Amino acid sequence: MGVDDYLGISELDLAYIAGVIDSDGCIQVTRRNCRGKSNVQYNLEVSISNTSVELIDWLKFMLRGAGYVFSSGEDNRPHRRKICYTLRVSGQVAFELLKVIQPYIRGKKQQVQLALDFIGIKGIRRYRSLKPLHPVLEGMYQEMRELKR
Fold it and tell me: Which pLDDT does position 4 carry in this prediction?
């Protein structure tokens, strides 16, 4: 079974999702310090933020309910701005999503490739600690940060 079969998303929808990620998405390698600096863990996350709750709900539906949605909240809206909704996925779902949209991505090609390479080295398991790989993973974390500047 291919990745596209796994998600069951049409090519048209994949292209649309890629466009949304190119414009309103964030692809990141996260770093988390646990129990001191000697235990650093890395993970892949993809988040999409938009003021359209309908778009975010549709994306969550397309991803078979994976991830979680949160909003900026009513109290955090300066100057009467619209509420911003964010869908965040990580690990396996983020990897599968990036793999199937890779052919359609335009603006974030380097970030997608780096994210896929990151999972290729680290593996899927969330917050897996691999001390021998920390210099490599830290380098990828820093490279992803540079791509966002």
Answer: 47
Give the number of domains in the chain. 1
Sheet of 40-50: strands edge to edge? 25-33, 40-50, 85-90, 68-71
pTM: 0.84
Residue 126 pLDDT: 52
**Cα(6)–Cα(41) distance, rounded to whole angstroms?**
27
Kindly give the parts of the chain with pLDDT less than 50.
Answer: 1-4, 127
CATH of the domain at 124: 3.10.28.10
How many degrees, rounded to 5, is the angle at CA 119 between CA 2 and CA 72? Answer: 95
For residue 10, the enclosing domain spans 3-73+81-147
d(CA 128, CA 94): 15
